[in-house]
Amino acid sequence: MPAPIGFYFDFISPYGWFGAVGIERIAARHGREVDWRPMLLGVAVMQVMGLKPLLDTPLKGDYVRRDVPRTAAFLGLPYKRIDAPLTPLPPARAFLWLKARDPARAKAFAQAVHARHFGEGINSTTIEGLAPVAARFGLAGDDLREATEGAEAKALLKASVDAALAAGVFGSPSFLVDGELFWGHDRLDQVEKWLATGGW
Amino acid sequence: MPAPIGFYFDFISPYGWFGAVGIERIAARHGREVDWRPMLLGVAVMQVMGLKPLLDTPLKGDYVRRDVPRTAAFLGLPYKRIDAPLTPLPPARAFLWLKARDPARAKAFAQAVHARHFGEGINSTTIEGLAPVAARFGLAGDDLREATEGAEAKALLKASVDAALAAGVFGSPSFLVDGELFWGHDRLDQVEKWLATGGW
């Protein structure tokens, strides 16, 4: 069995969503599994790289506000922008809490969060916003609280963020293919060739 | 006649080189001219955006050192890395000085600088390094000094940088297609579709 493709993403990153959709299609064509690994752009960009948030960066922020809907349409994905300050902590923790129990269910949960948050434009990054999706995957009441605020969930996310940084990951999405790191959904053409040829 | 495609680039940016090669091929397929417009990443990134240079950014610098040769090979371009502090001022000024006199010759000059600098790994960003290429395009002696250090050349580059910033350009390469801005050689797929369809 070849190793799974490591897929690093931040739940608030629309580019991460583009990458999620793309890497699953590519992996399926090459008989690979995809291991979803949440990271936090806030930690990587601000704390480690010493940069400001993308949307607060002069020129680049304006560009990204245009590039995201344009790219979504180019890729054939529905997209609705959410104008609220977002934190990826609740979905990232809930995803990892689920993954520790049932990886396949966790991935389906993450895909449902993506579709609702980016595709339908319903903020699914708060615990309240997440609740309707979480319920479909068996997470409600005390379980949802535990999965988003409990010590285990917090520790799982911290470990996931640390592992991403240790792998050199700084952006969402990133892909780790047999030790080779690719950043950006716009490197999926190279990812696919790497899978097909073993590298160059 | 449709308007030319605006192509913004920094002479020290290998991604700008990838973009230069790509946009000329695409423009030819769609019967468009490409207007080459030098910008300065140092001004855009450090002064306007308040970020640090790409290669000095933790994690991202290491990634880019790997991504550039990998992407060059993916694109079928020869690439040799130059390990020296680089300034794009001499080639950018000489390009604009030539462009004011003969736009076609200026573009051929820029392409020759790209091929020598990135493809052969011969630093062509100093006046001395630039001299052998410049001579092939009629620039030598006092003319070369004037084109790289004279008041006219300096004013031309300042105007080019200001115009790029006014157009919202912050990265190399960027492409302006009928008022629509695209950043990155990895947006050339969207550029080509925009040219073919008029936008979406």
Radius of gyration of chain A: 16 Å
Count the strands of chain A?
4
- Give the overall shape of chain A, derived from the CA principal axes: globular
The structural class of chain A is alpha+beta
> Cα distance, first to last residue of chain A?
22 Å
Task: State the helicity of chain A in percent bands.
Answer: 55-70%
**Helix and strand sequence of chain A:** EHEHHHHHHHEEH
Q: What percentage of amino acids of chain A are in beta strands?
A: 5-15%
Largest sheet of chain A: 4 strands, mixed
Uncertain stretches of chain A: none
- The side-by-side strand order for the widest beta sheet of chain A comes to 2-1-3-4
Mean pLDDT of chain A: 96
Hey, which two chains have the biggest interface?
Answer: A-B, 33 and 33 residues
Kindly report the oligomeric state of this protein: homodimer
Q: Number of helix segments of chain A?
A: 9
